[in-house]
Amino acid sequence: MEKRALFLALNLLTALHFLLFPALSNAQTKGRMELDGPNARIADYFDVIAGTSTGGLITAMLTAPGSDNRPVFAASNITRFYLDHSPKIFPENRRNNFVGTITNLVAGPKYDGKYLKSLVQELLGSVTVSQTLTNVVIPTFDLKRLQPIIFTTKDGKSNVSKNALLSDVCLGTSAAPTYLPPHYFETQGSDGKTRSFDLVDGGVAATIL
């Protein structure tokens, strides 16, 4: 019998479910993890983990290797991560109303994204897309090219210019228009040419169903 690939998709709704109801998420996988012991991680059970926006950040957290070559975060730690850091990523200000929304469209994003940037860069360090512990698929949208750019572990291994820092990919896919600024970064191809990216939330063009 042909082996079936196991695929975990994290769009906004499933990511929220993952955060709000961690005990109910992937009950079958959770049962297997309990049997396999405290060192078992979500990345051990899925061939592909995909996510955009918040789901992209969770995807990275579940698959990025730490110094012991195991995932940086256990699934059970992610809810606490968001509870601890969300107030600093999205601090309250005066633009929480209709007028504020219009202001966002004219004057720029509601939040400067500086805290999120420093947090993600510290968390993921120099890990690149090709180094994830299982295959990932993280959609983004490039404002200059006006087209989706999808980062995958497979592409990262075969195309140097797509082997971006995982932190850059996360900051790109989580840059929701009007809320966080676009994320710009560069990579270098095998031919020495520089490739630039101006990315926002992948959900603009490609959500994970």
Automatic annotation (TrEMBL):
A motif (GXSXG) lies at residues 51-55. The keyword Signal applies. Gene3D superfamilies: Cytosolic phospholipase A2 catalytic domain (3.40.1090.10). Residues 8-209 form the PNPLA domain. It comes from the Eukaryota. It holds the Pfam family Patatin. A motif (DGA/G) lies at residues 201-203. GO terms for biological process: lipid catabolic process. Residues 1-27 form the signal peptide. It is an enzyme of class 3 (hydrolase). GO terms for molecular function: monoacylglycerol lipase activity; phospholipase activity. Keywords: Hydrolase, Lipid degradation, Lipid metabolism, Signal. Its EC number is 3.1.1.-. The active site is at S53, D201. The nitrogen atoms of the two glycine residues in the GGXR motif define the oxyanion hole, and stabilize the oxyanion that forms during the nucleophilic attack by the catalytic serine during substrate cleavage. Lipolytic acyl hydrolase (LAH). Belongs to the patatin family. This is Patatin. It comes from Sesamum radiatum (Black benniseed).
